[in-house]
């Protein structure tokens, strides 16, 4: 995955400004930066929710700048959202099953009973076990606690079996006790291998622990890139964070 | 036990309705039930958009009207036979499919309120067209036409309409429970998330639009056959509002809801018409539907079927002693 001179302007303000980012295959790369740095916006550009004002995005060697979000998903890109984004009135199982259905390419079948696709339910259920939500499988998604909804998001993301995973602050707004569970799931995905992962996260221990490399964004611009240790030692990064700009609310 | 009762109930109702013409010789009741069956199909077709996919259309009458006029014009210009009747219905279906496809393509990319307004404008075009093409439609006055003898018999047509409703219900149920049907519900819940799971939302909205359009045209054709008359009212906003009321009162997102809503509204309509002899205020039926709507929404916030389903799950959950989520 690669971005070239990626820029998007909102009413005169460049939220993402000339970002060149290269993420090698099977790499675990984190993106950090103070709030409002443009991290989520960068994800929106990569996954296609937003169209860039300038620049291009390459994925698996093809230019996907003009491709719609669903087609990017089908190319093997999956994302989770910073603001929890599920199907509130559908059951937890159905949320994941829909992701399984999409991945398995059952798209325009309008006449077969779902019972013919029992394996989808089974697969969705085993993903719920992975994220420890199997006991809630029949509850509507909206009845889940915030942290549980985040886990549901992860299960949906896993169901897509994407080659590139975009995690937008998976631990945002969840209680301290629940963080290890999510960390554990991400660690397991990493250990499985065969996937490129981009993670936006504020919790530095988590970033340092998981990442092969770290990219720093500041005011929409690329500030630094390097191994976790290099970034920790980087003076520019320290001044960006410590120079009074750092206001990590969540 | 609970489950058994809820399977027996529809079966009992079906048996009752099947034997109804034998048990009862009230002609007006037979006609009322026939109308309910036909409107129920129209309401279910609307629910496919509103309740399942979350699309608000103010122009659903256009498909009802296409079905009605197609039968009217077909039977007017051709020789009266079963073959020409079926052909006219088929033409209505094809025309509705084509129109709903193009309306879908043109407008489903719009934000929902623009889509709603655009459908309103489209159905308005059909009213104007039907009024202006006087040589074919006889303008706003409309025209009567003949249908095969067999369809003129009230009892026969009662059975035909009943079977028609059951068949459409079973087909639509199959559709809503299919993989595509599940995606439609996902779109209703969260369109953007459905996209990012890899579904091309516009394709699904077009599918929903075409299926709903075709079902609506079929009900319009049946409506014209019962009346043996058609005029421009079939294209008007009143028809769309009726579908909207039937769907919401019965319960959005449940096909049964469309049937129950149709029964309630049509019965209320009949009642008000007869009361109009007592006092002319009852002719203002839209006021009473408004009141009925408010009452039903207060007692049954999720429509009649939706609320009953919810009570059921409450009871079941209570019986199992768990206080978790309440799927419906
Ligand atoms: N759709 C939008 N319209 C206008 N401004 C936006 C939009 N999305 C993000 N922004 C602005 O872009 C900047 C970057 O936001 P964001 O990408 O969410 O930051 P981060 O995720 O790094 O905290 C913020 O100043 C935000 O207000
Ligand atoms: Mg963000």
Write structural notes for this entry.
The complex is a heterodimer of chains A (250) and B (328). Chain A has 250 residues and is an alpha/beta fold. Chain A has helices at 39-47, 69-75, 92-103, 118-130, 146-159, 179-192, 204-210, 228-233, 235-242, and strands at 2-10, 13-22, 28-32, 54-59, 62-63, 77-79, 164-168, 196-200, 213-218, 221-226. Chain A has two domains: 1-76 and 163-250, Rossmann fold, CATH 3.40.50.300; 89-161, no CATH class. The longest helix of chain A has 14 residues, at 146-159. Chain A is globular. Mean pLDDT of chain A is 91; it is low at 244-250. By secondary structure, chain B is mainly alpha-helical. Chain B is built from 15 helices and two strands. Chain B has a two-stranded antiparallel sheet. Classes of the chains: A alpha/beta (250), B mainly alpha (328). Residues 10, 15, 33, 35-41 of chain A line the site of adenosine-5'-diphosphate.
**Treating each run of at least 4 consecutive H or I residues as one helix, how many helices of chain A?**
9
Write out the CATH superfamily name of the largest domain in chain A: P-loop containing nucleotide triphosphate hydrolases
Query: Greatest interface and its residue counts?
Result: A-B, 41 and 31 residues
Radius of gyration of chain B: 20 Å
Series of secondary-structure elements of chain A, N-terminal to C-terminal: EEEHEEHEHHHEHEHEEHH
Oligomeric nature of the chains: heterodimer
Largest sheet data of chain B: 2 strands, antiparallel
- Terminus-to-terminus distance of chain A: 27 Å
């Amino acid at each position: 995955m690669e971005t070239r001179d990626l820029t998007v302007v909102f009413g005169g303000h460049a939220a993402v400004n000339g970002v060149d980012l290269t993420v090698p295959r099977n790499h675990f790369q984190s993106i950090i930066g103070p709030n409002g740095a443009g991290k989520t916006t960068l994800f929106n550009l990569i996954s296609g929710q937003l169209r860039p004002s300038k620049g291009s995005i390459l994925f698996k060697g093809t230019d996907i700048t003009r491709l719609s979000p669903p087609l990017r998903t089908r190319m093997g890109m999956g994302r989770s959202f910073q603001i929890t984004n599920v199907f509130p009135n559908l059951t937890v199982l159905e949320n994941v099953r829909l992701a399984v259905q999409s991945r398995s390419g059952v798209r325009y079948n309008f006449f077969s009973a779902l019972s013919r696709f029992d394996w989808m339910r089974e697969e969705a259920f085993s993903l719920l076990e992975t994220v420890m939500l199997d006991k809630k499988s029949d509850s509507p998604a909206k009845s889940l606690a915030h942290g549980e909804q985040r886990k549901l998001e992860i299960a949906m993301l896993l169901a897509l079996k994407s080659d590139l995973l975009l995690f937008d602050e998976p631990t945002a707004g969840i209680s301290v006790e629940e963080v290890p569970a999510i960390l554990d799931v991400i660690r397991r995905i990493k250990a499985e291998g065969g996937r490129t992962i981009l993670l936006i996260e504020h919790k530095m221990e988590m970033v340092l622990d998981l990442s092969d490399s770290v990219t720093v964004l500041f005011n929409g611009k690329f500030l630094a890139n390097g191994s976790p240790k290099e970034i920790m030692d980087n003076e520019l990064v320290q001044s960006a964070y410590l120079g009074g700009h750092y206001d990590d609310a969540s | 036990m609970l489950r058994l009762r809820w399977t027996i109930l529809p079966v009992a109702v079906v048996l009752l309705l099947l034997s109804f013409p034998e048990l009862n010789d009230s002609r007006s009741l037979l006609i009322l039930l026939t109308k309910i069956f036909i409107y129920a199909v129209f309401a279910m077709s609307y629910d496919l958009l509103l309740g399942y996919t979350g699309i608000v259309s103010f122009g659903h009458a256009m498909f009802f009207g296409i079905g009605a006029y197609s039968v009217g014009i077909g039977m007017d210009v051709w020789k009266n036979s079963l073959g020409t009747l079926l052909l006219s219905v088929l033409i209505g279906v094809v025309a509705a499919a084509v129109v709903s496809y193009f309306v879908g393509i043109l407008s489903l990319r719009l934000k929902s309120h623009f889509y709603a307004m655009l459908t309103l404008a489209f159905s308005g075009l059909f009213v104007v067209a039907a009024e202006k093409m006087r040589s074919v439609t006889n303008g706003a006055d409309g025209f009567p036409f003949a249908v095969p003898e067999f369809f003129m018999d009230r009892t026969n047509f009662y059975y035909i309409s009943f079977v028609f409703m059951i068949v459409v219900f079973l087909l639509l149920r199959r559709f809503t429970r299919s993989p595509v049907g599940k995606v439609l519900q996902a779109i209703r819940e969260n369109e953007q998330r459905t996209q990012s799971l890899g579904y091309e939302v516009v394709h699904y909205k077009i599918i929903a639009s075409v299926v709903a359009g075709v079902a609506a045209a079929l009900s319009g054709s049946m409506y014209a056959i019962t009346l043996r008359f058609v005029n421009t009212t079939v294209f008007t906003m009143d028809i769309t509002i009726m579908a909207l009321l039937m769907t919401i009162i019965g319960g959005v997102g449940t096909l049964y809801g469309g049937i129950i809503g149709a029964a309630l509204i049509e019965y209320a309509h009949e009642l008000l018409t007869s009361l109009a002899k007592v006092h002319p205020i009852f002719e203002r039926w839209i006021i009473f539907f408004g009141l009925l709507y408010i009452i039903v929404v207060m007692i049954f916030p999720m429509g009649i079927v939706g609320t009953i389903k919810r009570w059921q799950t409450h009871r079941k959950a209570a019986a199992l002693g768990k206080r978790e989520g309440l799927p419906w």
